[in-house]
Input
Amino acid sequence: MSNKIRWGVLGGGGDSLIGVLHRVAASMFDAYQLVGGSFNPDVEVSTAFAKEIGIPTNRIYKDLNALVDAELSMPENERMQVISILTPNFLHFPMAKKLLESGFNVICEKPMTMTYEEALILQAIQQKNGNIFGLTHTYTGYPMVRQMKEMIANGEIGEVQKVDAQYYQGWINNLIHDKEQRNSTWRLMPEKSGISCCLGDIGVHAYQMLEFVTGKKIKSVLADLNHLYADNEMDIDGTVLLRLGEFTKGVLRSSQIATGEENNFTVAIYGKKAALKWEQENPNYLYLLEEGQPMRVLKPGHAYNSDVSLDGTKLPPGHPEGIFDAMGNIYKGVAKAVRGQEFHKSEFPGMTDGVRGMNFIEKAVKSHRDGNVWVGLE
Output
């Protein structure tokens, strides 16, 4: 029998971009074997998709309950070991809860849940059962993001004094101005998306990234969000002021109505001695800025990078890597954890990231609703 990790998937069928991303990522490093799942609420559609991608159909299930019941009836050395949740937001919590309670390891898309309270419930279950839980804040998988984190931790830029994250997209601009479309898109429906669209979808990436690379916790926020139309309940743009300490502050800007933008995610960390900047659309370049010195550009694959950065680099220097590779590094880290191997704490985001992310979303929305006031996260 194959020594690969037996992997199942919920959602992500058809032409789903996120489904392709996860399947390609899991295929890297030869660590996983896709054995089944439930790709679509219609089991016939799900079965047809399984045939299309070339996996057996005997473990294609009509829903989560059928999957759990069938898999638990199998010997432990045959059942699925890791299950990925690639469904719309409102299904993340009930699916993750059922899987964790049933003893499965989980990889989940973000946001982890619909509410902070749900996130705390999942955290308690995981702590009790000891499951591995990975959350796909994919950008942490980029080698130069990991290098950025290591350089900051080693004091190479000095004490952090200013942080700045921007995540701009323009895709909602194409539909928000049409009343019918803005009232029929699931991401703009609170019952399916949660209390936030923009912060919940992309702003939380920026929040997690700032805490990830700096190693610091954001302590309080002041948010000013934009809904653009009175009949739209969900934020589609927002600016959030941040306090990480008495003298460490910053700003987080996210938008889905930044006309013409594609996936413009940037992060800049300014220290006492130097600064580091990274851009998702040019992910193989990490910029180092120092007073009175020419800007330096660090690139992946070189010996000057940290061990965790080099571990996530698959190709020789000068060969660009991208989003599939970043997600592949997340899956690689989870595989190490599932197999009981030693792994670096930076290799995959987990439950704590999900809990803090949901707390950030709720507190930022509260800050806006209460009249743009400071709200503590701790």
The CA atoms of residues 8 and 213 lie 31 Å apart. DSSP finds twelve helices and 14 strands in the chain. The mean pLDDT is 96.
